[in-house]
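for the recovery benchmark. tokens below, seq after
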């Protein structure tokens, strides 16, 4: 790795699970605005539903999620009851809509909800919405908390994909991140799920954790491969203690350097590719017969707040504290604390905190960024034609790519009669977020003002 390439890895840019990114949401999007947006949804619009459960039994040191610890079941039952009311309240604003193609339970640890609450919530969604026959119904799980009865309940309520938060199998690394879960625990969990009939499994791994070495990450990948998940996400740990105070429990001196992070990611990536997994975007891997690998090949791969996804729902509706939805009109985010969220719903109001109405330029740049992040290429003229705008609006962005192009990380093709295309080269793929950032019209101002801080590019 050259010094110049290393400097790219150390630059701070968004992860681009949305555009514009969440720091640019504002209070100008109110509950009334959101209600109007919901009423524009018609039968031609397929839906995706996201349910956020902001509770865990304990908080892991590395966690970047919006969650808090509880040892009691009463808050979970009360939360589920309010979640039911939010779903009913939201559905009342939908005069008609297309079928639900995707449901995702995130957190936190959504499986902590009592069994009766899971049954009630899924039953309510079936009553209020039409489910597509090919619906993907996914949930995030803490392997330490999965039992055979839970696995059976998940299948009974229709869950057909589960993501296990593994992160790393090395005991010393686990201690450093506050999440001790031996390999045997994860193996037992996968057995419970498969015995119940839930075969579509994702594993979440991380590189850049405290105390990780080349030996430990290779051992983690080998153990992961032995359990044969259909998909593997290999995320770079984002150390953002200014946002997540519990990350201060991690000794920064034990974190790998930028060069070491890249080496860890490269080793893990090579091992997964050698095992036959297909590289999907920046940080996902899938077996060739998995729907995510198929979506990559047929051009239907998407990217949203869960990362890379096969979710084809055209309108994403979020439920629960801090959840984010994306409709054709714009983004909307719920209130961030349980108390205010609950009170808003009890008063009969949609629990909106903030959002952002999308302009034509936002949609144009969002499409370019998603294409770069999912397929590493974008035909700019084609996208501009879709949004009835000219390439001249993107000239400054193209100029911003010149540095990456000079170093062989991107290629810009301007051919007379064939339009303008941007390609991220094989060498540049680990730095695709930097190519995407060139088209971010908000980034320069937010960096200058300090209103948004982001993690390292790798």
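predicted aa per position
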């Amino acid at each position: 790795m050259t010094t110049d390439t290393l400097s790219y890895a150390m630059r701070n840019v968004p992860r681009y699970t949305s555009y514009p990114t969440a720091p640019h949401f504002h209070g100008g999007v109110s509950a009334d605005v959101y209600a109007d947006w919901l009423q524009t949804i018609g039968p031609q619009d397929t839906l995706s539903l996201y349910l956020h459960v902001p509770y865990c039994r304990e908080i892991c040191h590395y966690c970047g999620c919006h969650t808090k610890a509880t040892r009691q079941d009463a808050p979970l039952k009360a939360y589920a009851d309010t979640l039911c009311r939010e779903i009913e309240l939201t559905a009342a604003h939908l005069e008609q809509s297309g079928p639900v193609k995707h449901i995702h339970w995130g957190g936190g640890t959504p499986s902590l909800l009592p069994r009766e609450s899971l049954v009630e919530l899924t039953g309510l969604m079936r009553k209020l919405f039409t489910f597509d026959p090919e619906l993907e119904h996914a949930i995030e799980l803490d392997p330490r908390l999965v039992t055979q009865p839970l696995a059976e309940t998940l299948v009974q309520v229709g869950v057909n994909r589960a993501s296990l938060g593994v992160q790393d199998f090395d005991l010393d690394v686990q201690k450093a991140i506050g999440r001790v879960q031996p390999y045997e625990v994860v193996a037992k969990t996968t057995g419970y799920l498969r015995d119940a009939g839930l075969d579509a499994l994702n594993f979440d791994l991380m590189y850049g954790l405290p105390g990780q070495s080349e030996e430990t990450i290779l051992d983690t990948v080998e153990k992961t491969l032995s359990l044969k998940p259909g998909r593997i996400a290999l995320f770079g740990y984002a150390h953002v203690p200014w946002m997540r105070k519990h990350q201060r429990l991690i000794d920064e001196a034990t974190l790998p350097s930028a060069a070491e992070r890249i080496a860890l990611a490269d080793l893990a990536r090579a091992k997964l590719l050698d095992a036959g997994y297909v590289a999907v975007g920046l940080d996902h891997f899938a077996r060739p017969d998995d729907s995510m690998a198929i979506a990559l090949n047929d051009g239907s791969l998407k990217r949203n707040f869960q990362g890379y996804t096969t979710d084809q729902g055209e309108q994403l509706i979020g439920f629960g504290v801090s959840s984010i939805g994306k409709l054709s009109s714009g983004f909307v985010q719920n209130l961030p604390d349980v108390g205010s969220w609950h009170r808003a719903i009890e008063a009969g109001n949609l629990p909106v905190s903030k959002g952002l109405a999308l302009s034509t330029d936002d949609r144009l740049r969002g499409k370019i960024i998603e294409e770069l992040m999912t397929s590493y290429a974008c035909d700019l003229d084609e996208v501009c034609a879709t949004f009835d705008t000219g390439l001249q609006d993107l000239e400054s962005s193209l100029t911003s790519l010149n540095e990456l192009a000079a170093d062989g990380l991107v290629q810009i093709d301007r051919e007379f009669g064939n339009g303008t295309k941007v390609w991220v080269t094989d060498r540049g793929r680990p730095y695709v977020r930097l190519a995407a950032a060139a088209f971010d019209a908000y980034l320069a101002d937010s960096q200058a003002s300090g209103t948004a801080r982001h993690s390292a590019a790798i």
